[in-house]
Automatic annotation (TrEMBL):
It comes from the Bacteria. This is Glyoxylase, beta-lactamase superfamily II. It comes from Sunxiuqinia elliptica. Its cofactor is Zn(2+). One of its GO terms (molecular function) is metal ion binding.
Length: 213
């Protein structure tokens, strides 16, 4: 069974997740640790739980979601996976960080692509990959059918959706993809978002003001 640990990191209050199962293998999703004490918090959790990180996977590559990639790559010697359409965001991390007043260092390109229909395997566990562009062109959602949860990144929030005024954002595309790809999933599905608290598909279908018909 997959266990999920959430951390809230960096000046943008981004949610980083560590997923692990009974084997002790884990993946780090949207590594956003920026300050040294945040890196230590992540490392201490992994050490205390005696976990073995095997992959860095990203829902998307806006700067606040990749601030910890270099640290995790260096410390754990693990590869970085992201959708190819977000490669330009990795390339421009310094520029985008400057826009938000966050001084950041360059990040090397992803080691491996992730696309819709791929699977993310670790230990005895597998997540399905769903492409949900609109907030970012390469935005992905990671879904586990049996345990009924998803890591939604910045697509869907409690009572809101991802902003679409960033490079290559598209409001109509985002709304269409949420409704056609995520709202068809069971209403009990828990949504772990890239910022803020958890929600559920059913709650957002009934009450999200951006997604009401």
């Amino acid at each position: 069974m997959i266990q999920i640990k959430k951390f809230t990191f960096n000046p943008v209050q981004e949610n980083t997740y560590v997923l692990y199962d009974e084997t002790g293998e884990c993946i780090i999703v949207d590594a956003g640790c920026f300050f040294d004490y945040e890196k230590k918090e992540l490392d201490d959790f992994i050490s205390d739980k005696q976990l073995t990180p095997v992959k860095l996977v990203n829902t998307h590559c806006h700067f606040d979601h990749i601030l910890g990639i270099t640290h995790c790559r260096t410390k754990y010697k693990i590869p970085f996976y992201a959708h190819p359409e977000d490669a330009f965001l990795v390339e421009r991390i310094v520029e985008h960080g400057d826009r938000f007043g966050v001084p950041v260092e360059p990040v090397d390109a992803a080691d491996h692509p992730l696309n819709e229909g791929d699977q993310i395997a670790f230990g005895n566990s597998v997540l399905e990959v769903i492409h949900v562009p609109g907030h970012a062109p390469g935005h992905l959602v990671f879904y586990h059918e049996k345990q009924q949860f998803m890591l939604a990144g910045d697509v869907l929030f409690y009572g809101s959706i991802g902003r679409t005024d960033l490079p290559k954002g598209n409001f109509e595309q985002l709304v269409f993809n949420i409704k056609s790809k995520l709202f068809v999933l069971p209403e009990e599905t828990v949504v772990y978002s890239g910022h803020g608290p958890e929600t559920s598909i059913g709650f957002e279908k009934r009450s999200n003001p951006f997604l009401m018909d």
